Amino acid sequence: MKRKGSRYENSRPFSDEKGFAGTRARPLTTAEGIVEYTISSGDRMDHLANNYYKNDRRWWRILDANPAFLYGFELTSKENQGGVIVIPSAQEPE
Fold first, then answer.
1. Strand-pair partners of 84
2. HEC string of the chain?
3. CA 21 to CA 70: how far, in whole Å?
4. What is the C-alpha separation between 41 and 80, in angstroms, rounded?
């Protein structure tokens, strides 16, 4: 069962001929950034999400807006300190 408000809320169920059942991956789109943010030491994705969205579980929105990064930890890694990322709105416009 998918929770209301989950990023998978509108995903279709999936099952194949071998009997595997699961959730079909959500369609990936690039979220449009509205704020630029410079990464500094100690930044974490959940902290950024909590700061901008008041919800630490929405970190994936930030990752969606920065498609050059595959994993969330890459955005805030030591190698990316001083780099600029974009922060999108909390939800896609209707």
1. 38
2. CCCCCCCCCCCCEEECCCCCEEECCCCCCCCCEEEEEECCCCCCHHHHHHHHHCCHHHHHHHHHCCCCCCCHHHHCCHHHCCCEEEEECCCCCC
3. 25
4. 9
Domains within the chain, CATH numbers bracketed: 30-88 (3.10.350.10)
pLDDT confidence of residue 55: 93
Residue 85 β-bridge partners = 37
Are residues 37 and 19 in contact, defined by beta-carbon separation less than 8 angstroms?
no
- With tokens 């955005």, the residue in question is 75
* C-alpha distances out from residue 21 to 8, 15, 43, Å: 15, 4, 37
What pLDDT score does 29 carry? 67
Q: Residues 1-12: pLDDT tens digits?
A: 566 777 667 766
